[in-house]
Amino acid sequence: MKFIKTLLIFFILSSCVSEDKSNVELEFYRFDHQFSEINENNYEDKLSEIEKILPDFVDYYLNNHIGMFIENDSVKKSNILSFTSFEDVVLLQEKINNNFPDESEISGKFNKAFLKYLSFFPEKELPNKVITINSFGSNGVDVIGNNIIVGLDFYIGDENPMYSSVYDYMKVRYNKEFMVSDVLEYWISSDFLENSPSTNFLDDLIFKGKVMYIIQECLSSEDIAVILRYSEESVDWCNLYEDKIWEEIIKSDLLYSSDEKRYRSFFYDAPFTKGMPIESPGRLGYFVGLKIIQKYMSNSDETFKELMKNTNSQDILLKSKYKP
Q: Which of 298, 155, 286 is nearest to 224 (CA)?
């Protein structure tokens, strides 16, 4: 069972890996399509069809993403039919369909990214399924069992009817370009979190840096904006003031702090990072952590497995010789 929860449902994907592990194919199942087609005439057949492919998933979706009351079968049917015919839901699904008419646009990116991940960590499991949903604003990425769930409505930008009510600092995240990065962060973090105990700011900084570094390698990308899910303007600001950011972290005695309240905005979405100028983006810990790990790996001959196994954050920082 995978761990964590922050973002949501995407297609059902069966991973098929050849014996020599030279290929990965993620088969996408459009739950959002199938569920939206349920009506009074096909209710039983359509629900049965979905349940054969995804046992118990419908109830999970209703409970965890829609917050739907399903006390008994009669209430469940009534609520599902009300939901699938609700004007706002229908409109949102239409916009999802327009942006993602099929999975071909993104399947190749997923396949390449997870093939890279498997080459770095051949002992790790790949997703068994990838499932797409209309999350109706609940989350972007989620995991059930060994299956990834992706809420496609989170990746249609300003076409999402809820976009206008979202805080400005969050709007950049509604970008389909960030979907694979979001999923990789979720998956990699859940794979290694239990073996990476966090006791202070530095531990979180190094762990996030490792995850961002692996994502960068999986995507074979130098575009930090895509890796960190930042706007280009935020990346420019970080690069310009990298030395000042590090200076402030040291000066404020944050590096070894175990008070999560003091540094929460370094790792979670926020209008800016606490203790930094209001022009700064949130989640500066992602940027600094990535920079430290990039320096560390450039000064090391460690493999990716050895990097993730090394939980001595202080040792990694010192050997990185990070000094912007």
A: 286
Structure tokens at 48: 């049965």
pLDDT digits (tens, 9 = 90+) for 18-29: 334 567 788 888
Strands 24-26 and 147-151: unpaired
Task: Check: CB of residue 294 under 8 Å from CB of residue 288.
Answer: no
Phi-psi domain of 321 (left: phi exceeds 0; alpha: psi -120 through 50; beta: other)? left
Q: Of the candidates 289, 276, 317, which has an alpha carbon nearest to the alpha carbon of residue 209?
A: 289
Which residues, 6+ apart, have CB-to-CB distance to 15 below 8 Å?
24, 25, 26, 27, 114, 126, 127, 128
Tens digits of residue pLDDT in 33-55: 999 999 999 999 999 999 999 99
Token pair 């299956």 in the structure block, residue? 147
Please tell me the distance from the alpha carbon of residue 240 to that of residue 157, in angstroms, as a whole number: 28
Structure letter (DSSP) for residue 281: P
Q: In DSSP terms, which residues pair with 25 in a beta bridge?
A: 16
Q: What is the reported pTM?
A: 0.88
**Residues contacting residue 206 through CB under 8 Å, at least 6 positions apart:** 289, 292, 293, 313, 316, 317
